[in-house]
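4.2 Preliminary Data

To establish feasibility before requesting continued support, the project team ran the inverse folding procedure on a target of 151 residues. The structure was first converted into the token representation described in Section 3, and no sequence information of any kind was made available to the design step. The complete token record follows.
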């Protein structure tokens, strides 16, 4: 159940719960991969967040977006099989979207860091699907339209 709260003139949804029931709070996201430190370094460079922590063996690593307590974690999985985009032989199960100010520059930077552009591009030139070094699809998207937050 949710309630509506006004913040800075905009309506936002506020989570509520039944008496005696504590709602779950989002703590973060974990991605399976063959080398956690390598993938954390890729996303840390892509986002500018840096690597928040990693073990010496590449089994676990994480990022923490500035101003949040969320973790963006990575864990090594034996016999990791990357998703197949857009084929569903090994489904993607989820993907990440990042808004960027300059789409061509962000694509070039992601490729410098080890990403590759997917051959299937459902967004045409509006956004780009890339594959991170472990094969996870992610999208680079232009800034949100100014009216997207109006409500």
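Position-by-position output of the design step:
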């Amino acid at each position: 159940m949710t309630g509506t709260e006004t913040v800075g003139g905009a309506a936002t949804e506020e989570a509520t719960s039944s008496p005696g029931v504590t709602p779950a709070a989002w703590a973060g996201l974990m991605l399976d991969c063959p080398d956690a430190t390598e993938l954390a370094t890729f996303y840390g460079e892509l986002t500018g967040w840096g690597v928040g922590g990693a073990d010496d063996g590449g089994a676990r690593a994480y990022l923490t977006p500035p101003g949040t307590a969320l973790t963006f974690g990575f864990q090594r999985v034996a016999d990791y099989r990357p998703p197949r985009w857009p084929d569903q032989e090994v489904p993607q199960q989820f993907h990440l979207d990042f808004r960027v100010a300059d789409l061509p520059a962000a694509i070039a930077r992601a490729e410098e860091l080890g990403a590759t552009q997917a051959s299937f591009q459902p967004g045409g030139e509006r956004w780009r699907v890339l594959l991170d070094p472990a094969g996870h699809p992610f999208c680079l998207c232009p800034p949100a339209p100014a009216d997207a937050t109006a409500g």
